[in-house]
Amino acid sequence: MAEQALYRKYRSADFSQVLGQDHIVTTLVSAIANDRLSHAYLFTGPRGTGKTSVARLLARALNCTGTGMRPCNECANCKAIINSSLDVVEIDAASNRSIDSIRDLREKVALAPAIGRHKIYIIDEVHMLTSEAFNALLKTLEEPPAHAVFILATTEAHKVPETIISRTQRFSFRPIPTPEIVKHLVDIAAGEKVEVEPAALELIAVGARGGFRDAISAFDQVASSGQRPVTVEVVRTLLGYSDGELIGTVSRAIATSDARAAVVGLADLVAGGAQPGQLAIQLIEQWRAIMLAATGASEPTPGVVAELAAIVSPARAAMVVAGLIDATRSGSPREALEAAVVLLSSASDAAAPLAAPAPVAAVAKPAAKTAPVSPSAAPSAANEPPSQPDLNAATDAERWPKVVMLIKQKHNSLAALLAMYPIEVSGGAIVIKSRFNFHRDLFMKSQNRSAIEAIVEKVYGRAMPVTAVTEEGPVKAAPRAQVDSSAELISSALEILGGEVVE
Length: 503
Prior knowledge:
The chain has 23 helices and 8 strands. The chain is α/β, with parallel strands linked by helices and 503 residues long. α14 runs antiparallel to α16. The protein is globular, with a radius of gyration of 29 Å. It has helices spanning 6-9, 22-33, 51-63, 76-82, 99-108, 131-142, 162-165, 178-191, 198-208, 212-224, 232-239, 244-255, 259-271, 276-295, 304-309, 314-327, 333-346, 360-368, 384-408, 412-418, 437-444, 446-460, 480-497, and strands at 40-44, 88-92, 119-124, 148-154, 169-172, 423-426, 429-434, 466-470. The longest helix has 25 residues, at 384-408.
């Protein structure tokens, strides 16, 4: 017989064993004690934070015949539920998402409980239901039988219709603090008689990102390897975690605009067994810490975070975080991460979206104070027309950082990309000079273009069409040094990644 997985073996058997969710446990226990139960609950939060475990505990508590407000796990009802009672129905919405499944549930919900006071329906990943299924469920939630209690669980609450949410009591599960995860991993290691270094448990807990189930599954994996003691190196090798110092090397390269060093660092990490997805997560966490330290919102930890927070602006750090988050959404994680690192290494604080735009009056003022000149010094009539458009173009270009700032409030990733590229104001239109076709296409997507043009009209005081082009040659409006830097950057990327430029 296969050995039971540790995450099932150490699942919470009582409300007191639930990690990091005291605000939820206290409320539920009080509701049971005062007999103020809701007919429907919505549990939201990241995976592995206890949503399903608390749902099962609540189901036991509602039908427990013991005298306390918590499940005794000894009475007939508790034991029946532990062993899959008919009074607790668990539905996986990911595989039962159709309207037929919910109609079947509606027909059965009227049936009385088999042995307990309540019949509990736990619907996991409820956001996966179709619109028709949600409509069918809504009718049941509006007029539920007295004995029925619904517990809906989801990791993506924004996908649940407001009509459903408004008919439930919502509880938001929080990521479990790393020290609390470490503490319980120590207890599990002792119970399983596994010799493990404290630093290895710390690494597992950090990698779980607040999910205790992920942490215990990772511990189960390294414990099953048979290597004793379980060291930091064992954890890195088996789980694909990266050396923090090497991650710091990549971050330093990004901060100092050394694309070659950044991509070489990534290649070394991947060659050492690191997973690109995990690399991206670790880089995001490090740059988030840099961003918070740079703003003064938190004290920097000694090492690379403190070092880079002293030389990188908050806006630049935010741009890196946004760019790395975008890279995690790709179906090609390594390629997306490499491309993001090259782009972010080429960005500079000068392009940061939070830079305050120069006052328009500073540009317009000299024109207003121009003194009359002698006829001999006056420009010819043929030379006068170009001067005014040039002045307007300069003024318009200086307003662009404010556009990026306002876009960032609603579209963080879009603003980060916009801040990387120069613009040109020509013929009453704004032209974004992108380096890559996929960025140009992203800017020109109808919803993105509309969002940009709406902010442009607000800032410039007039409607101005926005377009994007891919610069295949030197940017004429850019300084020579910038062009050379871009060419060198692309050359380095080609040398490291292989391939050729296709016209």
